[in-house]
User: What shape does this take?
Amino acid sequence: MPSIKIGINQALFNLKGLNKTMDSLTQRLSTGKKINSSKDNPSAWAAASNSHSAFNRLQAINSGINMVAMNIRIADTTMGTIDDYLEKMKSQLDRIIKNYPPFPPDSPERAELLKGFSAFRKQIDQLTIPPPEEDAKKIMADPSVVPGAGDWEVMVGENGVRKTIHSRQVHTGPEGLDIPELPEEPTDAEIADAAANLRTAKDTLEQKRAGLAFDAFGIARWQAHNTRTANFHRNRAEKIKNADMNEVAAQIKSVELRQALTIEVIRGITEKQSQLTALLR
Assistant: This one.
């Protein structure tokens, strides 16, 4: 009799464990998750959490890169506008130089064309003095005029990896496009020199714009790398947590069979106990 009681208790204990396993498998089947909380599998839950954290960090870094890229596009557009202004300034001076007969020094037409040259020059300087919130545009500005102007350090990867968006000064000063003001009453020779200087300024602007594009390409490569790595971490986390439905279904069938066998064992032991009890009366 004690051995029969022990057998029943052992079978009931096994059945309780099987029922608990069935509850867990049913939850997986209904939620599609292999792990719903840390108690299901602490080590797997930690691995999934680490992958989720890495995904979120890389997403945050890429958001910062997006902001930088947006400002670089603004800077590139501004450089395009400056290029148009340089072309118009050169056109103003060429009209003075190439006009035949030459404009007299005191002619209104000559004065108007020189005025246009000066106006576009001022426009260039205004474009390279950005509002405080446009940090990336400060790479175009003169550090002696705009506080904080110069190279821009950008975080592009985990563990503090940074890249530099280099200063590309395109103001009219010597460190920029180097476009001096004309004298109040310039000679034809001085105007011709200024026109030649504008050609050099256009070449300089083109080089600086190309340098900006190169820097932008560099951070774009990092952004693409971050996206691939972030997707890897996200997929890894999902793979750890998501249930394989075919596997879960097979496990449920296995547990159902073991439950049925255990119940049969309990029924058999119970019947034997009843028979022994009847014999002992």
User: Anything to note?
Assistant: The two ends are 14 Å apart (CA to CA). The chain has a mean pLDDT of 82. Residues 19 and 43 are 24 Å apart (CA to CA).
